[in-house]
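Summary for the steering committee. The consortium agreed at its last meeting that each partner would contribute one worked example illustrating the joint modelling workflow. Our contribution is presented below. We chose a case with several input lines so that the handling of multiple components could be demonstrated. No manual editing was applied between input and output; the record is shown as generated.
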Amino acid sequence: NAGVTQTPKFQVLKTGQSMTLQCAQDMNHEYMSWYRQDPGMGLRLIHYSVGAGITDQGEVPNGYNVSRSTTEDFPLRLLSAAPSQTSVYFCASTAYEGNTEAFFGQGTRLTVV
Amino acid sequence: GEDVEQSLFLSVREGDSSVINCTYTDSSSTYLYWYKQEPGAGLQLLTYIFSNMDMKQDQRLTVLLNKKDKHLSLRIADTQTGDSAIYFCAESPLTGGGNKLTFGTGTQLKVEL
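What follows is the complete predicted structure of the assembly.
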């Protein structure tokens, strides 16, 4: 099992550009989430999904879109990148609701200039 | 809303015990977690505790929970250089489990020889 795989690992965008951060898991987990990590602020929840076709907003959803067409994939789309979206993004998955262990990807470091 | 706070830095000598502290505000938290993040990597679950427990021990790790003061601590016995990392305290409600985590700011642990 590869676990949770995120691509790319690094990305530089210009303000106003759009892009998609990819996340895939091969553990057949129902739940997937996206977090952003900023210095001095820990990780904050952007969007999450409780299963294919079902997504919901987290604490900081503005400027991001998600979809969940398959159990395995949960891409995060930046519609029009802004410098405030410079961050490290982590995708995570858990097996089912209430399961305590979240598995995290290695992260994508995004810089918006 | 929820708020989780941690001190930013801790330095200890190899072989000593480390104690990392965390305070949280959400009385409805059901699970409380400790995650470890090594440089350039994702987060790894170290241990968790149910909110109706006072203590949990797992090899070198001891978690203490004081519900009255909303205080959580992680004690690492016989700290090694490989324990140098950022440690995050996190909480989640019953319905979210490991999928909807609220993280603290993280404590950077430095282990000196």
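The two ends of chain B are 41 Å apart (CA to CA). The mean pLDDT of chain B is 90.
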